[in-house]
Amino acid sequence: MQSYKRALGAVATASLISTGLVAGSAVTPAHAAPAAPAAAPAPASVLPDLPLPDLPGLDLLSMLTNPPKLEGIPGIGSPLTLLAPVFDLLPIDLQKLLSFDVSWLCDGSLITLPAGADPWQFMPTQAQEGCQIAAKVTTTVLGFLPLEMITTALQLPGAEPTAPKVVTAATVTGTAKVGEVLTGAATFEDGVSTTYQWLRSGVAIPGATSTSYTVAPEDGLKALTFKATGTKGDLTTVSTAEVTPALGAAPTSISGPVLSGNPVIGRTLSVTPGTWSGTGPTQFTYQWMRGREAIFGATESSYLLKGADAGQEVWAVVAGTRTGYEPGRASTDAVRVAKAASTVKLALPKKKIKKGAKAALKIRLGAEGLKPAGQVKILRAGKTIKKYVVRPSDNGVRTVMLPKLKPGKHKLRAVYAGSATAGKSRSAQVVLTVLRRK
Questions:
Q1: Over the stretch 398-416, which tens digit does the pLDDT of each residue have?
Q2: How far is Cα 419 from Cα 172, in angstroms, rounded to an integer?
Q3: What does the alpha-carbon distance between residue 358 and residue 412 come to, in Å, rounded to a whole number?
Q4: What's the confidence (pLDDT) of residue 41?
Q5: C-alpha to C-alpha distance for 231 and 240, rounded to whole angstroms
Q6: Is the pLDDT of residue 241 over 50?
Q7: Rounded to an integer, what distance in angstroms lies between the CA atom of residue 120 and that of residue 31?
Q8: Which of 172, 317, 332, 433 is the most buried (most CB within 10 A)?
Q9: What's the average model confidence in pLDDT over 157-163?
């Protein structure tokens, strides 16, 4: 007790001295907090005679009633206030001699405050996002008996997680065509893992998970998408690029298609497609041609020749198709179909006529699958007595009037000259009798 009184007396004497005059073991503050105002200093002539305080047995910690504490809502831009420690058990005279050094800490590391900043206030910035903020307070009495205390830390909220940032948007390079190789590219910010996927018409293509991709036949004329996915934590960002590949080059005929069969009306012609370039299954379709015109409905590999084909050139076009490729075409050589065999017949409505009258004669042309037309000569005794034309509109039948003939029996025969589609023919004889007058 006597030592405490001696200490108290010494401190009371030292109360006349400002804190800044005390030498010895004072702690140099990082941010010195202002102390309570001291009594006016004694005249300079008195100071050299004053003894330095001696405070044996004084324990600040045992006299602490409230430790330093932080108040405020932790957040960026939200001010925090440091409440000074309270020593209610310390005599009032000594309380007036307390001084405080304050440091602010972020996860235990010193925060440098701007010059002139109030050490009892601190406003966190983005530099402290996610930090645990605390304050360290060092309490001294006239620079002696330092007591260091650190407040309970307040947790500052961290930055909101953001999706990975795209540095370079997805692109696709290369020739967008079946059979060609395409290359996709996309870059994200550092720290992002990237995966890739190619899609056809919006559906992932199994196994197509690298930056390069060979355009498959199924991709022709379909929307082909390169998709790059950047992942950071639980957040992802997707960057895509799309192309529409063109069909691949058409297969070509190596050994051309060949026709076989007898080109005669009523017979069948067939075509074999031959061999074609490229790999993979090739489907063939056919179109039969007559001259320069397609024959309607003739789309099989064989064709039954009809009357309309008589005398015409017939050939076939073969189309080779393969999934994802342009169709290839090749043609057979043309064959000329033989003319249809024709017939010509004569009929006399009246086999006997009077002298001076004209006889009617019915001409009938026929051919398989045709209604022939063309010139017909009427012969008598091997000589032409008249020429007639059976027109297409006559449908192969025409009745004509013979010139006047002399009385007697006349053996008549018709000769059909044929046409582009029908061959020549001769009729059997008919006998016309011209009566004499009585």
A1: 999 999 999 999 999 999 9
A2: 65
A3: 14
A4: 38
A5: 15
A6: yes
A7: 9
A8: 332
A9: 83
What does the DSSP 8-state code read for residue 264?
S
Amino acid of residue 328:
G
Query: Domain tally for the chain?
Result: 4
330 CB neighbour count, 10 Å cutoff: 20
The tokens describing 158, both together, are 């961290």
Q: What is the CATH number of the domain that holds 311?
A: 2.60.40.2700
Give the number of other CB atoms < 10 A from CB of residue 237. Answer: 19
Q: Which of 194, 210, 243 is the last residue of a domain?
A: 243
Of 55, 134, 129, the C-alpha closest to 97 is 55
Nearest to 363, CA basis, from 353, 350, 375, 351: 375
Q: Clarify whether residues 366 and 406 are in a common domain.
A: yes
**pLDDT over 70 at 27, yes or no:** no
- Say which residues have a Cβ less than 8 Å from residue 287's Cβ, sequence separation at least 6: 294, 295, 298, 299, 316, 317, 319
Query: Both 46 and 147 in a single domain?
Result: yes
Q: What is the per-residue DSSP string for 194-205?
A: EEEEEEETTEEP
pLDDT over 60 (residue 51): no
| Integer Rg of the chain from CA | 60
Contact predicate 30/100, CB 8 Å: no
Which helix H or strand E contains 228, and what residues bound it?
strand 224-232
Could you tell me the two tokens for 168? Answer: 């370079």
Domain containing 389 — which CATH number? 2.60.40.1930
Read off the tokens for 46: 């008195």
Q: Note whether 285 and 322 are same-domain residues.
A: yes
Q: Which of 99, 120, 155 is the last residue of a domain?
A: 155
Other C-beta atoms closer than 10 Å to the C-beta of 392 total: 11
> Rounded CA gap, 280 and 294, in Å?
29
Amino acid 176 reads A
Domain limits for position 74 = 2-155
Same domain, 360 and 392: yes
Region of residue 11 (left: phi > 0; alpha: psi -120 to 50; beta: else)? alpha
The answer to whether residue 107 sits within a structural domain is: yes
Residue 407: Cβ-neighbour burial (10 angstroms; 0-12, 13-18, 19+):
middle
- 160 part of a folded domain: no
Ramachandran sector of residue 88 (left: φ over 0; alpha: ψ -120 to 50; beta: rest)? alpha
The token duo for 105 is: 């800490």
